[in-house]
Design goal:
Number of strands: 14
Largest sheet: 7 strands, parallel
Radius of gyration: 23 Å
CATH topology of the largest domain: Rossmann fold
CATH superfamily of the largest domain: 3-Deoxy-D-manno-octulosonic-acid transferase, N-terminal domain
Strand order of the largest sheet: 3-2-1-4-5-6-7
Length: about 425
């Protein structure tokens, strides 16, 4: 059966995907950069292979993008503590990961090779990895199949199988079984994911399956620690700000009017508006909207968390969002009305209650935040207004939500250590 799916994938599915990618990259700069980067991968690995000795121990980590690498980072650091002389290759699918990840633990950074049989065989021959470790979900069949044929150990951690996943549908189930059965070990985020994955891989020669959590909680806590040492003031001592982070175009019709109404109702509440893509078009549109509501705005203009005094501050730089949350009372995280909500852990560790749209089921943290009372799924502008109004008008309620958000992070720490032990042991 696996051979049949390999033929289907290599003769039909992947060639069609490549044709669509070539067409799409004409119109999409991000896809184009990723495609061009992949053309250079084998030559990069060839140069890296020249630095390897025959006895070198090499691990290959793969992440789809920057967000998934945040799960890898604490695992990688822990692994290097145990095996300091190991060589580390990290591959990315997206330019957001390749361009923005700078980690001294990485010996070779590449775009994931094209998933052709010959390309993957060449890459594995050059790297000679002891193990290949995948974060979360970005699984490429030929890489898995060929690794198994070469007796290379493959691990998937922070695995999530959302309720209703198509991987368990009758049409897709057998194909995904042929891929996931080739893993040596799969570590899920929680018990629900474990039971979902078990449906796919149970049977003869199934992978080792464990519930080990999500190392991203550890990474968020680690990033926050240095900042919180000097940031000891109570959350109530902060300026009353809404931090709207990673806002997509699709979020705007839902949140903008609600924000404006809150700002008009509360003289002491202000807004920090952070577009997901802070280009001139997105920033100008926000300026025009808020000025039309009688709410003056200023652009931040530089990478600083020393925010100017203004009713609305529009952030036109990148790289400071995680620190901005420590200067707010409430956060709205964008993406939940388009491609999927962005990182809700960073505001949570900053003791900030979090609002987000309905497309959030792929992230464990959002469900935990909702259950704990530190996070709120919103569907309409009225939802946003009602929740913000209650948070700003009821101090006891705000404090309960604030502590609940932070507790979600603390209650999920320790996964990175468990994953490192699993990688070494299994």
């Amino acid at each position: 059966m696996t051979i049949l799916f390999q033929l289907l994938y290599n003769l039909i599915l992947f060639p069609v995907l490549m044709i669509l990618t070539i067409f799409a990259m004409v119109f999409n700069k991000k896809i184009r950069h990723g495609f061009i980067g992949r053309l250079k991968t084998i030559s990069t690995l060839r140069e890296f292979s020249k630095t390897l000795n025959h006895n070198d121990l090499t691990y290959w980590f793969h992440a789809a993008s920057f967000g998934e690498y945040e799960q890898i980072r604490p695992v990688l650091a822990g692994l290097k503590e145990v095996e300091p002389y190991a060589k580390i290759v990290v591959s990315f699918f997206s330019p957001s990961g390749y361009n923005n990840v700078h980690d001294d633990h990485i010996d070779c950074k590449i775009y994931l090779p094209f998933d052709f049989l010959w390309t993957i065989r060449r890459a594995l021959k050059l790297v000679r990895p002891k193990k290949i470790i995948f974060a979360a979900y970005d699984i490429w069949p030929n890489l898995i199949w060929i690794a198994k044929n070469r007796k290379i150990h493959t691990t998937l951690f922070a695995a999530r199988f959302m309720k209703g996943t198509k991987k368990l549908y009758p049409v897709f189930r057998n194909f995904y079984q042929s891929v996931y059965h080739c893993f040596k070990a799969i570590y899920t985020v929680d018990k629900v994911d474990y039971l979902q994955v078990q449906k796919l891989v149970k049977g003869k020669n199934s992978p080792i399956l464990r519930v080990l959590g999500n190392p991203r909680y550890d990474q968020v806590k680690e990033k926050a620690d240095e900042f919180t040492v000097s940031h000891t003031q109570s959350v109530l001592d902060r300026e009353k700000r809404i931090i709207a982070g990673s806002v997509h175009l699709e979020d705007e019709p839902v949140v903008m009017d609600a924000f404006a109404k809150i700002l008009q109702k509360y003289d002491d509440v202000s807004l920090v508006w952070v577009p997901h893509d802070p280009d001139e078009k997105n920033i100008s549109r926000a300026e025009l909207f808020f000025s039309g509501k009688g709410l003056p705005s200023v652009r931040l203009g530089k990478k600083t968390v020393n925010l100017p005094i203004a009713k609305v501050v529009i952030v036109d730089v990148v790289g400071i969002l995680s620190r901005l949350y420590w200067h707010g009372h409430v956060a709205y995280i964008g993406g939940g009305f388009s491609t999927g909500v962005h990182n809700t852990m960073e505001p949570a560790i900053a003791r900030v209650p979090v609002l987000f749209g309905p497309r959030n089921e792929q992230f464990h943290a959002t469900g935990e935040l909702i259950k704990a009372g530190g996070g709120f799924e919103v569907h309409t502008s009225d939802d946003v207004y009602f929740i913000l109004d209650k948070l700003f008008s009821d101090q006891d309620y705000f404090l309960d939500c604030s502590f609940a958000a932070t507790n979600v992070i603390h209650n999920n720490l320790g996964s990175a250590t468990r994953v490192v032990r699993g990688i070494i042991r299994d």
